[in-house]
């Protein structure tokens, strides 16, 4: 399960006159039950099990609205499809270069990842993301 202080979906302010539709609620619920950072296509397949009439375009629109509202995070790794994360707690991501899985990495207690770098003088950081690459535990155990 994802760590998200907005688990009460009714407390999410979508802004822009958007309301919490059944489709958005289902997409949000799928992400709250996920730890694997699914792509939009993977979210679509999971949602389709509960709502057969939903389209991939609707899932993309739901994800965009939830990201804009700050209810979920969009995770972008190089040129791969965007993935979505329901964990809003400060954390980093581990990307397995063998199987392409994405795992949450907890930060040391009290650590602020943004204070681990020095940005150019006069620059203003608006978003800070940390991604670590390597082999996940499962792939690291395999012999090449």
Structure commentary:
The chain has helices at 22-32, 40-48, 56-68, 137-141; strands at 73-75, 83-85, 91-96, 102-106, 131-134. The protein is of the alpha+beta class and 144 residues long. It has two domains: 9-84, Arc Repressor Mutant, subunit A (Orthogonal Bundle); 90-141, 2-Layer Sandwich (Dna Ligase, domain 1), CATH 3.30.1490. The strands form two sheets. A three-stranded mixed sheet has the order 4-3-5, with no helix packed on it. A two-stranded antiparallel ribbon has the order 1-2. The protein is globular, with a radius of gyration of 17 Å. It starts with 21 loop residues before the first helix and ends with a helix. The model has no long low-confidence stretch (mean pLDDT 85).
């Amino acid at each position: 399960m994802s760590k998200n202080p907005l688990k009460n979906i009714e407390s999410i302010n979508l802004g822009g006159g958007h309301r919490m539709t059944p489709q958005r609620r289902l997409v949000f619920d799928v992400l709250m039950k996920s730890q694997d950072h699914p792509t939009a296509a993977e979210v679509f397949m999971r949602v389709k099990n509960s709502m057969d009439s939903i389209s991939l375009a609707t899932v993309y629109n739901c994800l965009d609205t939830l990201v804009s509202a700050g209810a979920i995070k969009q995770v972008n790794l190089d040129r791969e499809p965007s993935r979505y994360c329901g964990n809003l707690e400060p954390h980093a991501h581990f990307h397995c270069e063998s199987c392409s899985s994405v795992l949450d990495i907890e930060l040391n207690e009290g650590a602020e990842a943004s204070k681990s770098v020095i940005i150019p003088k006069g620059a203003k950081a608006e978003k800070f993301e940390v991604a670590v690459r390597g082999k996940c535990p499962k792939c690291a155990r395999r012999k090449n």
